[in-house]
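Bumping with the actual sequence this time:
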Amino acid sequence: MVIRVPKWLLLCVSALLLSQGNKVVDNLFEYSKNIEIFTALYKELGSTYVDEVEPGKLMKTGIDAMLKSLDPYTNFFSEYQAEEALMERQGQYGGVGCRITLRNHYPTVDYIDEGYAFDIADVRLGDQITHINGLNLKDKSTEELLTMVRGAPNTKFQVLLSRNGKSLEKTITRMAIKTASVSYSGLFQENIAYVKLEEFEQNACDEIEASLKKMMEKTTLQGVILDLRDNGGGLLAEAVKIVGLFVGENKSVVTLKGQNVTGPKNWFTPNKAILPNTPLVVLINERSASASEVVSGSLQDMDRAVVMGQTSFGKGLVQNYVSLPYRTQMKLTTAKYYTPSGRCIQRLNYQERGSDGQATVLTQEKKRAFQTQNGRKVFEGGGIDPDKYLDPYQGLAVYKWLEKELILFDWANDLYNGQPDTIFTPITDAQYNQFVSYAIQKSQAAMQAKWQKAMTSVYSDTAFIKKTGGFQVNQTQVQNHLRSELMANKTTIIQVLNKEIMMRKLKKTDFFRTWLTFDPETKDAAAMLMNVQAYQKILKP
C-alpha cells in the first residue's frame, strides 16, 4: 500500500510560506523538514504496519491530535461535518432543540427548547439517550452525537431513552431550528425593564430594541436589567450593536489582535442609542462567554453599566472558517478579544501547559490591571469580574452540594415523571420531607463513592482495601448533618425546588414571569437600580 501526501497539503503549505513573506524564510527549512518526516511516517504506517490502516481515518486522527494541542476551538471538519457546520451557521439545519451533558457515560438531556422535536416527542429532562438508530452512545462525544441528531428538516431517526430505569423508544422528526435570541422580556417592579438574552443570533439587537421600546411605551423606565447568564455567545456584530443601544454610535467596543487578522480589527457601534442614560445592570455567571463577555466587559470599561453576578467563563478567542480541498473545512482561532480598556478576556493560556497537560491560568498576582473611563481597576486574563459579586448559592454550602451533585435536578425529574400532566403547585411540607430523605440517601452514596475514589488513589493496593472492608464514610454523621442543614434552610431549598418543577411544568414565558419574582439575583439587580446613590458609587468611586 502506497500513501502519498496529497498535493493540496503541499499547495496549502506553499501558499502559507509565500503569504508570510520574510518571516517564513527563516522557518522554511523547518516546514520542509517536518513535512518530509510526516510523509515518510505516513507512508511507512500504510505499507508496513501490522494491520491494515484506513488512510482517511489515520489522517483525520493525526490532524485532530495536532489541532487539539493548540486550543479546543480549532477544529478540522470532514466533508460531511463541513456541510453540517455550514447549515448550522446559516440557520438551515434540522435538529431536536435540546442541550445535553455527559453523565454516567451517556448523554443526558438537561434542557429542552419549547415547541421543538424533543419537546413534541415528550423527551424529558434527565432522560439518558442510550441509542440512536441502534447505535450505542456509550462514551460518545458531544460532537458525535450532534452529527447523528442533526440533518435535513422533516427527516426521522429512532432514539432509545432510559428514564427511571425503563427503556423508551421514540421516533424523532427533525425540525428547522430557529429560536428567538430574546427568550423573555417584561417589566419588573413596574418601571424596570428585564430582558433575557439566550444567544447572540442574527437580529438579536433588533429583538432587544423592540422589547425595550414596547416597555417604554408603557412607562418611563427607571432602569434596565440585561440578563446574560448562561449565554454562551454568538455573533460579534450583534454584540457590538447591542452595546450601541446604550452608548450610541461610533464607540469602540472590541479590538481583535492576532498574527494575521482578516476583516475589521476595531469594532465600533454603528447605531444610535435608545437609552443612553438609563441606569443599566448586566447579569452574568460562569457560563456567560464570548459575545456575552464583549458586551459586559465593554459596558463595564465605559462605566455604562454595573455588572453583577459571578466571574464569566473567559473565552476571548475568535474563530473563523476556512475552506479546504475536497469540500473539507477548518475552524481556527485567528485572534483574541480586547475590551476598550485594553484587557484580554481569555482565561486559559493554551500555549503554556502544566505538567498535567492542562492549559495554565494567570494567578491574581500576575494579572495586569487596566482602567475604566472613570479610573476603576479591571483585570485581564480571567473573564469579566462583576462589579458586585452575587453568591449563586446564597451562602449555603448545602445548596451548592445539592446542585453540583444533581440531587435537585434528579429529584425534580422523579417528581415530574410521576405526575407530568398536573398543573404546577408549590412544594408541600410532605413533599419536602420526602426530598430530605431522598437527598440524604443520594448524598451518602455520593460521599462514599468520592471517599473511596480518593483513598484508592492514595493507597494503590485495592485488593487489600477490599478485604478489610474499604474506607467507609460515617453514614450517621452525614445523615444528621444534612438533615439539620436542610431543615434550617428549608425556605431557600423549597424555593429552589419550586424553580426546578416550574421549569418542567410551565411554558417558558410563564416560567420567567413567575420565577423572576423570587430570583434573588434579579431582585438584587433591581434593588441596585432603585438605589441611585449605590449605583453611582460603583461607577464613580
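The C-alpha cells above came from a reply further down the thread. Residues 7-53 form one domain.
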